[in-house]
Amino acid sequence: MEDENYSKKRTSDYINKDVIDKSSETVDRQLQKGKTLAGKVLDDVGKTVDGIFESVDSLKQKERSAKTSKKGSRSFGSRINNNIDIELIETEKLIYIKADFPSVEKENIEIEIGENAVELSGEFKSLTQELENDAKELINERKNGTLSRIINLPSKVEINESTASFTNGTLTLELTKAQANKIKINLE
Fold first, then answer.
1. Which residues does residue 157 pair with via DSSP β-bridges, in sequence order?
2. Domains in the chain: how many in total?
3. Which of 48, 68, 88 is the last residue before a domain boundary?
4. Cα first-last separation, the chain
5. Burial environment of residue 160 by CB neighbours within 10 A (0 to 12, 13 to 18, 19 or more)
6. Using CB atoms within 10 A of its CB, is residue 132 exposed (0-12), middle (13-18) or buried (19+)?
7. What is the secondary structure of 25-74 as a DSSP string?
8. What does the angle CA 172 – CA 74 – CA 103 come to, to the nearest 5 degrees?
9. Are 49 and 102 contained in the same domain?
């Protein structure tokens, strides 16, 4: 009987050892799967972050291209909004646009009017640009460089009937809405 108990205990030990070994292998496999999954997630996160940086670089490149493009080659909708603050108001017959160009001289503002959009641009000069070559800029929180904005209009306008004025750093445009072409048809 004692041998039988000893034999059962030995068998039980082997079975327990076998179960522990198999459990350990299962845990190791699960850990490996977890590591693989974590690696894939990190790769995906890395690709997403890389994509974000590529998008930012692309936007910066478009902005640089827009700033250096020739005036004659510009088309509406092709340039980036560089935060020229505007107010757009529509009445029955007119469209009004007010745009802020603080510290910009009147001669440094360009206005291009199309039937469906208006492009505004202005050159903001920093104090460093106006001073001698040995000037060292310490802080500059002001806008500088050429800024532009394209404003899509709510309706077509008569290009030749537009007026503009510039006072105290504010540009005001008054655009006359185009009349819809109507014809009267007689019934026969």
1. 177
2. 2
3. 68
4. 122
5. exposed
6. exposed
7. HHHHHHHHHHHHHHHHHHHHHHHHHHHHHHHHHHHHHHHHHHHHS-GGG-
8. 40
9. no
Look up tokens 């068998």; give the residue. 11
**CATH code of the domain containing 150:** 2.60.40.790
Rounded CA gap, 115 and 113, in Å?
Answer: 7
One domain, residues 59 and 94 = no
Closest residue by Cα to residue 85 from 176, 30, 151: 151
Distance CA 123, CA 135 (A): 20
Q: What is the pTM of this model?
A: 0.51
User: How many helices, marked H, and strands, marked E, lie in the chain?
Assistant: 2, 7
- Short-list 131, 148, 150, CA closest to 140: 131
Task: Look up the domain containing 46 and give its range.
Answer: 1-68
pLDDT in tens, 6-36: 555 555 555 666 666 677 777 777 777 777 7
DSSP state of 101: -
Of 53, 62, 79, 96, whose CA–CA distance to 147 is shortest? 79
Q: What is the pLDDT of residues 40-94, one digit of tens each?
A: 766 777 777 666 766 666 665 555 545 433 333 333 333 444 578 999 999 999 9
